[in-house]
């Protein structure tokens, strides 16, 4: 069976309570626990844990699922396992419910004998519930336990499917309604549950189903790329969104892809690859363009410029979403850009335009006046997946030209 190496993803508990409301005595306790576990001072660790839980339970939970969980895999002396075992014997029902899953995982890490592993399998089934418990993170530890059992050839497909399906079922009981979430802790809980549902499905399809082949393209992309994320906190336009990526990009040219534009070229290079080749020639910012009906210009940024060859224009001016009577042409910018790093300073100095948004077209217009911006009529087809009609057209095209021919 293909082994799935699970990276223990630690999600720090975000404390929504103001720090001033946390008892001051809790801080030295939480700071000392890591050293006590690492040095094998089990009695002191248990005493500190009980007091920390009494003072402020979220800090105790954070230490269990963050610090201790990280130490367990490299705990050659089994101090963590001993600590959890003795803490369970204190018979604090609330604490026991929180630590039972991580305790079972710690047992699975060190277990070797068939009888031990069989017992762990049954204990895991007994732990599973009809609803999710965020504080115990049972579903996360279930996957880690499955991984340990699988690495020791102590489980089979039927058992794994049973556990994972139960995981998914319990996770789905967590509220999944549409609402504005203002409480950061509650927002983190929802994100945690969504993440685990996705991870459970991934484990299911990777390890215990015959549908792994359908994920090959996705896995190739994941394996071949490094993904970094930043957030646009305010909805202030595409220019502002690009500016938020400045710390990730640095002093390099970069591509921008707008996901609602699907561009496909079945007869050669993809659109970005075509644009990269042009960048290597011209070393300036490049925008992808296509001709649109004049009545649709109000949906796009529109360029005017000097034709260099049939498919390339040196941009003189750009207008964001002009009415047909004000449009300088019918050459519309679509969601593929290659931008040079000086664009960041230009965006930062660009005043908000329509709707209070910072438009990338305004920044590109300034760049065009000061240097060079190229507009490129790309080879291939573009589908506007932001509209129902465009989404359906894209689906049908991909089915006919990619899926059926594969």
Structural notes for this entry:
The chain has 406 residues and is α+β, with helices and mostly antiparallel strands. It has 2 domains: 19-224, no CATH class; 238-403, Spore Coat Polysaccharide Biosynthesis Protein SpsA, Chain A (Alpha-Beta Complex). It has 16 helices and 8 strands. The strands form 2 sheets. Strands 3-6-4-5-7 form a 5-stranded mixed beta barrel. A hairpin with a 2-residue loop joins strand 4 (301-309) and strand 5 (312-320). Helix 4 (79-88) runs antiparallel to helix 5. The radius of gyration is 28 Å and the shape is elongated. Residues 1-20 and 176-184 have low confidence and may be disordered.
Task: Provide a short characterization of the protein structure.
With 406 residues, the chain is an alpha+beta fold. It has helices spanning 26-38, 42-55, 57-72, 79-88, 93-110, 114-127, 138-151, 157-171, 184-207, 216-224, 238-243, 246-249, 271-282, 343-348, 360-370, 388-403; strands at residues 254-257, 261-264, 285-291, 301-309, 312-320, 331-339, 373-377, 381-384.
